[in-house]
Every structure is written in structure tokens, then in C-alpha cells.
Amino acid sequence: MFVPQGLAQFIKVNVTLENGEPVFIYTDANGQQCPGDVTITQAGTVTYLLNDQTGKGLKFVGVGFVTPFDEIVDAVTISSDGMLVQLVDLDRTPGNTKFQFVLSNTTNTLLVLSPDPEITNRPQN
């Protein structure tokens, strides 16, 4: 999925339970299933919207990066209700970075990790 300049890109993070385990399915703005990965060609923001279908009160509490200093993603913000995560990407550094969403739940104090979507920067300059 490519993020055009000046337009907000939304990806819905649908979480269900299968045999008691969380299953993450990403869908684009048109409701089509996608891998959750995004390719950035110009500065922009990618917004992930949580659609918790588990009944466990999931909320975003963080985003974890294996390589947090690679300068691919420039900033992360989480809405106060834990339903939105925004990744700010100024598209200055070419390359890829993988991350995982960190979610809390109302059932216990354990945290849930998502599969790792990926941001790819391909600056036009």
C-alpha cells in the first residue's frame, strides 16, 4: 500500500480470538484485507485504528521497534482512548523497519503483541 502526499492513510487492526489466542487481520480504507505494511514515498502519517472483537478490552499502549534508531519512523502517538496509533514518517531515510503493536487488556495485566507490520521508505529525492 502506498501513502499519497497530503492524504491520511488508515489501516484497521481487527483483532479476534481463535482458540483463545488473538488473531490480527489488517484491512485498508476500502475494507480489503492487507498485510498492514506501508510503503512511504513522501512525508506523511499512517493511522492504525483498533477494532477489538475479542471482548477483552484491548487498547494500544505502545509500539515496539527492533531497530528504534534507524530513523525510518520519526514519531509515534497513541490516542488517549487507546484506539488509534499514528506513525509519523518524514521519509528522509530510505529503508525498512518492522514494529509490533503493544496492547493491554481488561482481563489481566499481561500485554499482547501483534505480528510485525513493516514501514518501507522510498524517498523521491
UniProtKB/TrEMBL annotation:
Gene3D superfamilies: Cupredoxins - blue copper proteins (2.60.40.420). It holds the Pfam family DP-EP. InterPro entries: Cupredoxin, DP-EP. This is Autocatalytic aspartic peptidase. It comes from Shewanella decolorationis S12.
